[in-house]
Amino acid sequence: PLYSSAASDVYKRQVMTMRRLLAIPPVAWALGFIWFTVALPQPLSLSRTDAIVVPTGSGGRIQRGLEMLQTGAAQQMLVTGVDASVQPDEFVAEFEVPQRVMDCCVTLGFSALDTRGNARETAQWLEERDYNSLRLVTADWHMRRAALELQDQLPDNVSVTYDAVRSQASFATLFVEYHKFLAVWILQVLG
Predict the structure, then answer these.
(1) Which of 65, 95, 106, 186 minimizes the number of CB atoms within 10 Å of its CB?
(2) Contact, 113 vs 139, CB < 8 A?
(3) What does the alpha-carbon distance between residue 109 and residue 161 come to, in Å, rounded to a whole number?
């Protein structure tokens, strides 16, 4: 009887240890999701960079980028991920861009189809212009993944500031974006 009680205690401790170990991933996931949704990146005050980069997507991004460009926050702006069917005149009309600003300072990038493509298109555009700093303007819920993708593509000498556009993202949007962010992060960690 004494032997079986000792064996039973060892078994119970092993089961408890296993339960604790199995609880770590879901608890880490839940805490990460809470952090992701509660501590969304915020808008940045006016600061100067060489360029502004705006991935297309949810509302307010392009307007924020144009506002920063026209207040002198940067020399040029890239709008990355523009649909191939969009004509520059349509962009000017849609966003009420003064023609002089469009001519001198706004580049429409048509090669990106997703966030990773935005990062590649941005890296190439920056390299062609020999810029060393940029302001990334995107939705608050999209900023972390866009920043990860961008950091993966840019050389170390390029500094990036993050200017989030506030949104009213739904739970579903945050849930999906959190998992996309985790996937990118894990892939980068694994190399």
Answers:
(1) 186
(2) no
(3) 20
- The phi and psi torsions of 164 (rounded to 5 degrees) equal -85, 140
- Show the tokens assigned to 100: 């002089």
The DSSP output letter for 1 is: -
Structure tokens belonging to residue 79:
């709008």
CA 174 – CA 33 distance, rounded (Å): 9
**Rounded-to-integer distance, Cα 67 and Cα 61, Å:** 10
* pTM exceeding 0.85: yes
Q: SS3 of 47, please?
A: coil
pLDDT of residue 11: 84
Strands ordered across the beta sheet of 51-55: 106-109, 76-80, 51-55, 133-139, 159-165
Which H or E run includes 126? Answer: helix 115-129
pLDDT score recorded for residue 15: 87
- Which of the residues in the chain have pLDDT under 70? 1-4, 6
In order of 63, 145, 167, 177, 188, the CA distances from 183 in angstroms are 29, 9, 23, 10, 9
Tokens of 116: 């990773």
What's the residue count for the chain? 191
Which residues have a Cβ under 8 Å from the Cβ of 87 and sit 6 or more positions away?
none
Residue with the two structure tokens 């600003």: 101
